[in-house]
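Handout, section 3.2

Students often ask what a structure token actually looks like in practice. Rather than define it abstractly, here is a full record for Dibenzothiophene monooxygenase. The first block is the sequence as you would receive it.
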Amino acid sequence: MTTHGTPTTATARPAAHVIADDAEALAVARQLAAEFAVDATARDADRRLPAQELDRLSASGLLGVTVPREHGGADVRAETIAEVFRLLAAADPNIAQIPQSHLVYVNVLRQQGSPGQRAFFFGEVLDGKRLGNAQSEAGTRHVQDYRTRLTATRDGGLVLRGTKYYSTGAVFADWIPVLAKGDDHQLYVAYVPRDAPGLTVVDDWAGMGQRTTASGTVTLDDVPVPADHVVPHHLTFTGPQLHGALAQLLHTAIDVGIAGGALAEAVEFVRTRARPWFESGADTATGDPLVVQRVGELAIKVRAAEALLAQAGRAVDAARAHLDDDSAATASIAVATAKAYVDPVAVELGGAIFELGGTRSAAEPLNLHRHWRNARTHTLHDPARWKIQHIGRYVLTGQLPPRHGLL
């Protein structure tokens, strides 16, 4: 199967700002996070998709910060991009999750794209174009049992056939990367325009949390794909790789952001609306010693999660500078450690708001339960228990973790 060439041109869009370096990326993320936080509760309550916010995100240049410098991007550190996602997720984890796949599939092009593919698609990304995803499938034997097929036709072309679920970002995408098995039974990524004939995106996501990620269904009915839009993803896992570590780092950052956002809202509620327990003898909830104790415990957990996230980002950066089996394993284990720690912390923080706020915090109009719903939903993405298994074997025997996209 021929997979390398120079892709054809997509619909033009006004160019986005191009961010210069790590410091600017962080400054832009802080500004956007402050803007996105204002209506986050209302968007969740009304299930109002963040179309305008995503256009703002695209225009800001943040979606292009991992493009290599030789192609005009800032090529920011993994530690920086993790912090960008943490900041966005603390404001609205839905908005943070939507571009997670975007950066993952930019990285696929970086690793396995031809020079022509990289030049074309990196140009698209720097112009503000968004990549979605059509990756997960339902009803298969397990999460990496892909039934979608990229099949050669009699006239020498390629077509995609299959159905994808949990396709976060597809509704808002200009390009939808599709994971599919080829006629050779190997794994490929086909980059398909959002308006390709035979491609349908349905916003039927109805999860209890992450309500506005539009993680719906993509159907592919003989979708034509030029060979020069196809990347041999299976080659990614034939040697040391950071594909899984980077993908999981971004998921971890989202969970750390959820935990931090929940803590901030819990503290604000205690300061302004909660009452002390009568036995405490305190005049305010902030003087209740058991409330103080619990807030301190939760703050320690959030700070630990933030530190583990930053450490994991640095491990990915170190491995990228000198990639081999050992450095790739060190990075994967560091990211797995951070995610295994933070996932239960994010869920705990989502519930602790009510523990600290008391009965009045359960009022439906406050929508404080969105933190728990978001944490519980997003942390289902992949089980931390398997990460702990890999960590244990690595520590005990030095066994390197497997090469796949979830570690």
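Discussion prompt for tutorial groups: Confidence is low (pLDDT under 50) at residues 2-6, 8-13. How would you have guessed this from the sequence alone?
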